[in-house]
Amino acid sequence: MKRIPLLFACLCLMAAGCSRPAGDAAVTTVTVQKIWDEGTHAAFTSLIKFNGKYYCSFREGWGHVFDDSGKAEGKIRILCSKDGASWTSVVHIGLEGVDLRDPKLSVTPDGRLMVTIGGSIYRDGALIGATPQVCFSQDGEHFSDLQPIEIDPAVRSKDDWLWRVTWHEGTGYGVNYRNGKVMLLSTTDGIRYGLVCPLDPPAEIGDEQPLNESTVRFLPDGRMAVLIRRDPGTALLAVAPAPFQEWTWRELPLHIGGPDFLVREDGSLIIGGRSFLHPGHIRTVLYKGTVDGGLDERYILLPSGGDTSYPGLLIEGDRLWVSYYSAEGASAKTAIFLATLPLTVFD
Length: 347
Fold this sequence. Notes:
- It is a single chain.
- This protein is mostly beta strands.
- It has a domain at 252-347.
- Helix content is 0%, strand content 59%.
- The chain has strands at 3-9, 12-15, 18-21, 27-36, 41-50, 53-61, 75-81, 88-93, 99-107, 113-123, 126-130, 133-137, 147-148, 150-151, 161-168, 171-178, 181-187, 192-199, 211-218, 224-230, 236-240, 248-251, 257-263, 269-278, 281-289, 295-301, 309-316, 319-327, 334-342.
- The strands form seven sheets. The chain has a five-stranded antiparallel β-sheet with strand order 1-4-29-28-27, with no helix packed on it. Strands 9, 10, 11, 12 and 13 form a five-stranded antiparallel β-sheet that branches. It has a five-stranded mixed β-sheet with strand order 14-18-17-16-15, with no helix packed on it.
- Residues 1-25 have low confidence and may be disordered.
């Protein structure tokens, strides 16, 4: 594993879903390191700092979903690093007959590392059910056994997918999606979840397109912001003050797959995900956004291609850390990468 220093003319213009280099494209130093490539397919990352160390989680499997025999049984690996340069595996989690994927990391109010995981069950190549799973660690080395997340029976189904949990003032919030619909849930223990409200975009936004992967964050004034993937359409941003019942909806100008975002102290957003900006060339991309749904016309393309995206974002000092996965060359094999870049590129 090695570091690859890259110079990027990373700021480009965006117009009608296409792009061209900006006349005054800024040049910045992006450091990219491959931190894991010891499997056939590694994907769907999350990144966090816990007890002074860095943790990166992702799914390992034979392919994006299925192996050569049509079986889907992905496992979860979590890496740890003291300095961001050297990474070691601390746990490898599997569940017989279940495809574990999208492991998302958070820290509970009582100081435990929590991993929420999608748990899908396939039969004859078809998805027949999904139950989200969770496990915890006190020290970042020893993890509890997986246990099913318990969703209020009034809103529970056989196809639930709680994609990410964000903690705020002692309560964890996450968006559960199923059958193209999303709903905001809350928890105080990371295991049992109740309904806060459905997230239904107004008709003028376009409520006929399926909604799925969603990330919750909080603005400096205490409002909640939710970034929602929509297929095949563009992403949505929903914002509400507590108690999170009255929502303002904005339509972003682009589709964003595997969405994550962070809120800076000035209220601006750093958004990451899969981009189709360049036809025929999928990339992992970073944007600067605003709470009213705007995206800066400049964006940052990370070195990536093929099967790629699902970043984890972390601000460490004056730099942004980004975990993500990408296919290498013409091979279907994917690896996990860590990019770091100065926050000044978003100013």
